[in-house]
Please model this.
Amino acid sequence: MAHTVDELAVLVQGTVFGDGLVRVSNVAALDCVTPETMTFLDSARRVKRLEGLTPGALIVPRDAVEAVQKIVSCPLIAVEDSQGAFISLMLHFRPLAVRQTTGISPQASIHPSAQIGSGTNVHSSAVIEADVTIGANCDIHAGVVIRRGSTLGDEVTLHPNSVLYPGMQLGARVIVHANAVIGADGFGYRFLKGEYVRIPHTGIVRIDDDVEIGACTTIDRAMVGETVIGAGSKIDNLVMIAHNCRIGKHNAFASQVGFAGSITTGDYVRCAGQVGIADHIKIGDKATLGAKAGVMVDIPAGSTQVGIPCLPDKEQFRVMLATQRLPELVKKVEALEQRLAALIASQDAA
Model:
């Protein structure tokens, strides 16, 4: 259903610049926008991305209106938080499906000792073993395996084929995406008499409230004690967190991050894609690690580090600039060597 820009502006408490009677029928990504759809710009610094586009309308930060009007002629909705306003209108055009209570599928395998809270859905082919406790209003999708003694809080969602090994503890509103594995044994072996001997892992994984775990991510159980994921942390797809790690609150890890064993992070730590961290490292509160950072020493709180091995960002960028000059420096050194050799030869001849 199409709406006028004026109507949409009311929904997000925005100010209209231009023709508020223009109608748009949907939202779109910036690079896919058409005259029938609307999109958003998140910062005045990115106005050049609008060149050549013909959106039906734009949501923009209030401080970007003048710059945007120089590039596009469509009506604008100016707001304080353009991304937040866009999300609100996206859900207006594309409302999410309302959760349905479907109950427990007869095709699920549930041990008689399992306790399942009211309003919880258990879908076909799910397996719930002995002494499992599941809170209220959870969604256990097809193919999920919850092994003996695990505990789930209220409103937990386990997407298809995710696996919880025995004794896992999940808080409220945890989301685990498809094919994630929580609680496999850590990669721990002793080298004895010429062979690797497996170390038993008897600990658990504890995932606190409001954590989201991406698809195909693996979080290993502790050898003893707990592997912990702190409340509010968000972990992307294909992340590996080894045994006995203790992740603080509200951490955010992008895809392919790898943590070796017994790493500790503070709160609000951020890791970009493919960060790798050696075992027993400590990462301070609000530290940020850039893509592919290789971490082999402790990182202080508030530090931003990049590179392999990682260094503080400004220092690493100086190293990178110096590295780019190496070919030029090599040529200069070779020229100096030739001049020196010629000078020595002339002195010897004299």
Q: What stands out?
A: Residues 326-349 form the longest helix (24 residues). The helical segments are 5-12, 65-69, 82-93, 313-324, 326-349. Residues 3-93 form a domain with the Udp-n-acetylmuramoylalanyl-d-glutamate--2,6- Diaminopimelate Ligase; Chain: A, domain 1 fold (CATH 3.40.1390.10). The first strand starts at residue 3 and ends at 4.
